[in-house]
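(Deposited chain)
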Amino acid sequence: MAANGDGFSEVSMEDLMGQVEKRQISTIVFIIAMQKEAQLMINRFRLVKDINSPFPKEVTWVLFNGMYKDLNISIVCPGKDSTLGVDSVGTVPASLVTYASIVAMKPDLIINAGTAGGFKAKGASIADVYIVSSVAFHDRRIPVPGLDLYGVGMRKAFPTPNLIKDLNLKVGRLSTGDSMDMPPHDKESITANDATVKDMEGAAVVYVADIFKVPTILLKGVTDIVDGNRPTSEEFLENLAAVTAKLDESVAKVIDFINGKCLSDL
C-alpha cells in the first residue's frame, strides 16, 4: 500500500472489502414485504417491535429487533398503506425501506426473505425454498441502447457456496416486477432472465444494497406455480401459511449457519 502526502496509507477498495469479509457477521437486517411472511421469524428469534424506530414518523414501516445467539437481528416490513390499509408490496416500498435500513442500522448483511411464484418448467414446486443466485427486473423495458440493460438490472446475489452445500438448498434466478400476473410481454422478459422464481421486491432490494456495497442474500418460498393451471392469486392465498412456515424453517437454518461466521465463510 502506498503512502499519500499526509503519511497515511492508501487502502484499495479490494483491501477494504477483504477486511469486511473476514470480520465476523454481527448485524443482519431482514427486508420482508408482508408482516404475515415475517411473523413466524419474529416469534422464533423473539424479536420485539421497536417503538422508537429510527425511521421518519410519517412512514408506516415496522421494525422488530433483538439478539439471537451472537447476532443482532432486525426485521423491517413496509407496513400497511396509509390510505388503503393493505400491505405495501412492490419495488418502491422495498427500495425505500432498504435504503433507510442501511443508513440507520449499517448491517453487515441483508436478507430479503419472502414468498414468490415458481416455474414448473424450471423445476419449482409448491413450498420449495430457493436461495437466489442473481436478480433482474422483467417489467422495465427500455428499448434504447444501454438503457435496455439498465432496465433489466441484472445483479448477482452475494455468493454463499458453503451455505448452499451445507444446507442442501435449491438455487435459482429471481425475476422481479410490480405485478402479480404475467402478461405475454412479462413472460418473454422472465424467460430471457432465465428465472426460476418471480417476486415483487427482490431486485429492488439488491439494487439499493449494491449502491452501498452491502452483501445481500435472498430466500424465496414458492406459494404458486406461475406456469400452472390455477389462478396465481388463488393459489398464493391458499398456500401462504404453509409456505411461510417452510420459509421460517429455512431461515432458522440459515441464521444458525451464519452465526459466528464471517462473510468469507459463507
